[in-house]
């Protein structure tokens, strides 16, 4: 009888301990799950944007940066803060905005961002004056909903660069160009294209858009493909994933959809090839989608973001 009572006591004690342990573990699991959800929710409040920083060859390089999803004015301020010379986050890349430059005001209306800087913005080397503007314009144009930029200096629209006296449009957009290269010999048949090259810095690779002006009567698609097939941008550290052996059989434009058919293509870097080609086309032409075909099959599709 006593033995049975003792066993019963042990059983009840064990059962209580098991219930307590299960409850404790379950609560911890709930807390951990809630914590993870909060972390996901926090992470989802970040947005990946592109900014443009200067490399050692004086090219503006496309760099990813995480910023808070917020009012466009606040996102613009956060992006600009990443363009100061004090930004040391990226090896061998630097911002161009002088450290003393103040942002007097930022307004947004009708897809146009208006930024009023202090006059310190223009206190840069004459060779970098235009680069500063390109860096600001292209970085801010990456914000969804922003198509145009107006830059002011202490309340006055910046219409001319201080040292070079180069005139600027009152309203700046992607047509302003970036990393401009002029390979023209005459003032007619001038074609403007944006080409996405690769810049390798140790173990990291970055995309570099180059606005190229050349004399050509060819279709823009052909100009883009032939230029990137050249592999290297003359006398620089820029290269292209598009091999000179790449052969394009045909291309056709139907409304805003471009189809490029290859007869030969190196598939080792397919994603990089299609990305650089599509990016060049989107920045050079009024195209919303690019379809890539090889041997009668679709190998990739890129849509303009």
Kindly report how far apart the N and C termini lie: 80 Å
Strand count, sense and barrel status of the largest sheet are: 4 strands, mixed
> Nearest-angstrom radius of gyration?
28 Å
Q: Number of DSSP strands?
A: 14
Q: What is the overall number of helices?
A: 5
User: Which whole number gives the mean pLDDT?
Assistant: 85
Helix and strand sequence: HEEHEEHEEEEEHEEEHEE
Based on CA inertia axes, which overall geometry fits?
Answer: globular
Give the neighbour order of strands across the main sheet. Answer: 3-4-5-6
Number of domains: 3
Overall helicity: 25-40%
Strand residues, percent: 25-35%
Extract low-pLDDT stretches. 1-7, 21-43
Structural class, from secondary structure content?
alpha+beta
Fold and architecture overview:
This protein folds into three domains: 1-41; 46-175, no CATH class; 181-303, no CATH class. The strands form four sheets. Strands 3-4-5-6 form a four-stranded mixed beta sheet. Strands 7-9-8-10 form a four-stranded mixed beta sheet. A four-stranded mixed beta sheet has the order 11-12-13-14, with helices on one face. The model is unreliable at 1-7 and 21-43 (pLDDT under 50). By secondary structure, the chain is an alpha+beta fold. The protein has helices at residues 2-43, 72-81, 129-141, 220-229, 270-284, and strands at 46-54, 60-68, 103-109, 112-117, 148-153, 156-157, 181-183, 190-201, 204-215, 238-239, 247-254, 257-264, 289-294, 297-303. It is globular. The protein is 30% helix and 32% strand.
